[in-house]
Write a structure and sequence with these properties.
binds zinc ion, 456 residues, 7-stranded antiparallel beta sheet, alpha+beta
Length: 456
């Protein structure tokens, strides 16, 4: 056989090698996945951000991208030279998800906020549509690569390494989340077991039984963890056999009442892997070379002081398809204090979605805060916590919480009810009516369960 000789002006495929379908390997004991960017001098990173903000504004005006061009015009910006960098972002009106939805409705199907022809993309996904018509996201290869590299920083920081076995149960098809996570793990170099979301006990059983054959190095961690614990218990499969022990909550709680979760995502439509838990300090290190992440006071458009809650507002950088000053209508706090871990980026904390805030008896709180109280009660959390809150609508009446208890013993059930009432009073300062239900009363979900229901 003679080696293939390329014809001039005809493109052929090069041989397979490092970097062809994934990143170049690095030593397992290397501290950071991408030290050149994660441990970058903050002043140089800021210069990079400024340059990338200018490039984004230039593309908005020159492409043009009508939705964002109109926002710039509102701020009196009509030429690329009018914007010097990050500091000028506060002059721009925010864009919210409803703007994207409206734009897609006016100019179906893509709207007027794309930077590239959607056919230059290779993947399409829609948002889950919990707050209206789902919007459409399109990723080019470069946009996906930015997500994969960002996710890789997160896995490495958490101690994951190529060669390990990981598992997840993200939903797929039009909802793009599962494919993104799967491909990100593959890019990073982990053997990935993608099990079906446990919508039914049968589907959960399929996953649990498979994990007893090939046990993941990291236990399943996700919205549906409780479902797998519940079904493994029903089947009499020891949790160790399915690798379902040693589950950890994400590191970084502890700012304010109920704490703040590490800010790990700015939504699939904006920046899925915007940051990851530091593990040394509270919060998540943000990938600031690819985004300007701000906690903004919506009344002034200015950033709130370090550590205070504001509107999570993200400008994505260096993508084929970006978002300019996108307000996710969620709470975040940003901390710039240097971190001893070696990363030089700011850290972010997430305080929940504003639309998910519950309000009653003059108090506002998150579903997660109610969940924390219930999780502290053994009779309620074993084998898994299943509860629903009746949406309180800001009144003065009791907060109604329904929760399952496995035990049929009336004393255990009464004790669980009393503990929940006392815990909600102590932690949130609200009076609650707690209804104890039998197991399997509340509908189960394979991904995000419905925890807040309207009064019946
Ligand atoms: Zn750190």
């Amino acid at each position: 056989m003679t080696p293939a000789v390329p014809e001039p002006d005809v493109v052929s495929t090069p041989e397979f090698g490092p970097g062809v379908l994934g990143p170049v390997a690095r030593p397992d004991d290397q501290k950071l996945w991408d030290p050149a960017h994660q441990a970058m001098d903050p002043e140089l990173r800021r210069e990079l951000q400024d340059a990338r903000v200018r490039a984004l504004v230039r593309r908005v005006l020159e492409t043009p991208v009508p939705l964002f061009a109109a926002k710039l015009e509102e701020a009196g910006i009509t030429a690329p030279e009018d914007v010097r960098g990050v500091d000028d972002l506060s002059r721009l009106p925010a864009t919210v998800k409803q703007d994207l939805r409206d734009s897609e409705a006016e100019a179906p199907p893509w709207g007027r906020y794309r930077f590239t022809d959607p056919r230059r993309g290779v993947r399409l996904g829609t948002t889950s549509g919990t707050t209206g018509q789902p919007t459409i996201s399109v990723w080019t290869r470069k946009d996906l690569w930015i997500e994969y590299e960002s996710g890789s920083r997160n896995w490495w920081r958490m101690g994951y390494r190529p060669g390990q076995i990981i598992t997840h149960a993200h939903p797929a098809y039009l909802y793009g989340g599962g494919t993104l996570l799967q491909q990100c793990y593959e890019y990073f170099g982990m053997l990935t077991i993608w099990v079906p979301p446990p919508d039914t006990d049968e589907l959960a059983e399929e996953a649990v039984r498979f994990w007893t054959r090939v046990r993941p190095d990291h236990p399943f961690m996700g919205f549906a963890t409780g479902r797998f614990l519940e079904v493994a218990t029903k089947l009499g499969i020891p949790l160790e056999a399915a690798g379902l022990t040693g589950l950890k909550a994400p590191i970084g709680f502890g700012l304010g009442r109920g704490g703040g979760m590490p800010l790990m995502t700015a939504g699939a439509e904006c920046y899925s892997f915007v940051g990851g838990p530091c593990g040394v300090s509270a919060g998540a290190h943000l990938h600031e070379d690819w985004a300007v992440v701000q906690a903004v006071d919506p009344a002034t458009g200015l950033e709130v002081p370090d550590g205070e809650w504001g509107n999570l507002t993200v400008t994505t950088l260096d993508r084929d398809n970006g978002l300019l000053r996108y307000d996710l209508e969620e709470a975040c706090a940003i901390v710039h204090e240097p971190c001893p871990c070696g990363e030089t980026s700011a850290r972010g904390l997430w305080g929940g979605r504003f639309k998910d805030l519950l309000s009653c008896q003059g108090t506002r709180f998150q579903v997660a805060e109610v969940e924390d109280v219930l999780r502290g009660i053994e009779a309620v959390r074993e084998p898994s916590l299943e509860y629903q809150i009746v949406r309180p609508h800001g009144g003065v009446g009791e907060l109604v919480v329904k929760v399952e208890v496995a035990s049929a013993d009336p004393a255990v059930r009464a004790g669980a009810r009393a503990a929940a009432v006392a815990g909600l009073r102590r932690t949130l300062g609200v009076r609650a009516f707690v209804e104890i239900l039998d197991r399997d009363t509340i509908p189960r979900a394979g991904y995000k369960a419905t925890r807040v229901v309207d009064p019946s």
